[in-house]
Amino acid sequence: MMESHYDPREVEARWQNTWEREGLYSASPDPSRPSYVIAVPPPNVTGALHMGHALNGTIQDSLVRWHRMRGFNALWQPGYDHAGIATQAVVEKQLRARGQTRHELGREAFMAEVWQWLEKTGMTIMGQFRRLGASLDYSRERFTMDEGYSRAVLEFFVHLNDRGFVYRDNRIVNWCWECETAISDLEVIHSDVDDALTYVRYPLADGEGHITIATVRPATILADVAVAVHPDDPRYKQFIGKDVIVPVVGRRVPVIADEAVEPDFGTGALKITPGHDPVDFEVGRRHGLAELTVIGFDGRMNADAGDLAGLTEEEASERVVAWLKEHDQLEKRESYRHAVGHCERSGTRIQPLVSLQWWVKMDELAAPAAEAIRSGRVKFHPPVHGRVALDWLEAIRPWNVSRQLWWGHQLPIWYCPDGHHTIARSTPDACGDCGSIELTRDPDVLDTWFSSALWPFATLGWPDKTADLDAFYPGDVNSTAREIIFLWVNRMLMAGIELMGDIPFHDVIIHSTVLAPDGRRMSKSLGTGIDPLELIDAHGADATRYGLLKMTSTQDVRFSPGAIEEGRRLANKLWNVSRLILQNAEGATPKLDPTSLEERWIIARIDATRVEVEAALTDYEFAAGASSLYHLVFDDFCDWFAEAAKPRLYDRDVALIGTALAALERLLVLLHPVMPHVTEEIWGQFHDDRLIAATWPEPDIRFAADADALSRVQDAATTFRRSAVLVPLEGDEKRIFDAVVRPERVKASGDADAERARLSKEISRSEGMLANEKFAAKAPADVVAAEREKLERYRRELEALG
Ligand SMILES: [Zn+2]
Ligand SMILES: [Zn+2]
């Protein structure tokens, strides 16, 4: 018995439990069937479900459910990322609240603290994915820090070392002294800051005048090793090759020429401080300059800053400016607003700092990945992102893989007192160079993305040879956010080709970013976030899934509450029409044997929609697929088929009921990938098996000729509803018209002549418009097509009036 009112709350939870309990989400190797594999982008262990997860989860689940119904051995792999810096920051914050630091605790106790926190509070997103109806194989949940995965990570590092790609070097990094680690470019947020631009005179060593430079960081003058000018700048040509004296420290440094100098900035002469600026660092490497640092890892002036050691950069800058004033080398100071990088976690101003880090040479890894994109073996959707991914690979830079954190995979590198290093899978007995047994392990950990790069195959058991790897690698699709194309997608491509000898997936979906309804970024701190779990509570998971798919596009999209409400109406409408059919179908079984016009027509419409939905899912055009389904349910199935069939349904016409049930079956199957719960619940009313495991319909073109069979009736309804003019119809057409439009309820009082005149006028207007070359050339294609369709309908309506 179906309730008169559909309540998603109880129904959805019940099916989520049932599907999982009955093992309908799980996949195991099966050589008799083709596989279809998506690995979920592993969310942070600390995270909670946000709109991006909900949208991406829906996209992936729709694809997975669709393929499962099509007979594929579908695996949707779940799991978590340990998210080094994010997780460490959360736990450190808790320690601070207790008045402790991780240093007081020590590494081992701190790690135990993190694990404990994770067990209690972390790893909640997979539970939230369940509430979305996401059919991940939860029995396969992996974690980038679990034992097997950690082994894979170390194996990757050792492999890269064996290939000769791993090296240690001083490079400039984004240093956050608050978090005490180097952080990746992605974790740096740029925001405007009001600084002072200080103009400083650097006297020439030969006493012949001076060069003025402008700087926002006077404290770093102490680490200057050159002054650079653009080679073509006429103001400075005569100075190239001479020496100047660095203020405060009195160091004699050269004036060099470099193309990187922007003649328009400041005075056109640049102080070069390779130890504290990324651009200067590159200039310094090109000219073989020293890399001095005067600011330490704690954000304070270091021992090389002499008298200023221990001061903050701000305090040191004041002292330097005072010195400049006193020595008449300060030309002027002016206010200056500019974008400055800040740490995403702590908000601290980033210190570009040269430090000794571990690096991976990427050229040989990037080349085959670039080729895979160039050749089209890996396709991005929308394609513009493929270009972006390719550009990055073609200009690949070394990868800084060491992080000064505790939470993560500790580098498998051991040092001996003589400064040799040994890289090994497990603690070595002795130094590989000198045999010393006094070994100390490098305290740093690997970049979190180093482990994420292995996600498509480490989750399947790599580096062991497993049946899962044979069955499920390479996978099929990666669906993710735009921000992590470089950090994650490209690195999975490189790692997959290098370690597995094949690309990990052939399609990359870059989904829309869902913005707040007012167009701002969705963010908890801005108060613009919308919690998808609240949407699920209020409208159901099916409505939320439908609405999110309906919102997608190739661009960023504003969140639309209307789309979710539309999904809710769709679920209700489907419920009500199913209830109507099933209540009158007692004892009947689905049997496709269409006798009347509307029966053949709905079967044809369902098959035409099947084609549209398949095309939409194949091309990853989810909004188009959602629209097709909506139109099929609301307009075709409910408003026309069910209304037309109602009188015979009430008469318990057995042939009609068999066909109506068969049509409903097909409708449920088509809707299931997008709205799994309500469809499964209705299916269960007249089936013992599960819809999730049902078969996707084969093409059925037997009734294709009837796909437009109702157009005369539909036109007549349009005419009647607009003008109360009755169009003469006969036979089935008249019967359907009467059943659906129920003209007895509305008096046929319209003026047929006036309607003919009106239609003739519309036809000449439309013909004129389409004949206009300007309109045909300039209007968007869909506008032109819509106008043509209108014209055809007017003509049909006029003809029908006779
Ligand atoms: Zn920080
Ligand atoms: Zn040694």
From TrEMBL:
Residues 757-801 form the Valyl-tRNA synthetase tRNA-binding arm domain. GO terms for biological process: valyl-tRNA aminoacylation. Residues 599-717 form the Methionyl/Valyl/Leucyl/Isoleucyl-tRNA synthetase anticodon-binding domain. CDD domains: Anticodon_Ia_Val, ValRS_core. It catalyses: tRNA(Val) + L-valine + ATP = L-valyl-tRNA(Val) + AMP + diphosphate. Keywords: Aminoacyl-tRNA synthetase, ATP-binding, Ligase, Nucleotide-binding, Protein biosynthesis. One of its GO terms (cellular component) is cytosol. Residues 15-560 form the Aminoacyl-tRNA synthetase class Ia domain. InterPro entries: aa-tRNA-synth_I_CS, aa-tRNA-synth_Ia, Anticodon_Ia_Val, M/V/L/I-tRNA-synth_anticd-bd, Rossmann-like_a/b/a_fold, tRNA-bd_arm, tRNAsynth_Ia_anticodon-bd, Val-tRNA_synth_C_sf. GO terms for molecular function: aminoacyl-tRNA deacylase activity; ATP binding; valine-tRNA ligase activity. Its EC number is 6.1.1.9. Pfam families: Anticodon_1, tRNA-synt_1, Val_tRNA-synt_C. The keyword Nucleotide-binding applies. This is valine--tRNA ligase. It comes from freshwater metagenome.
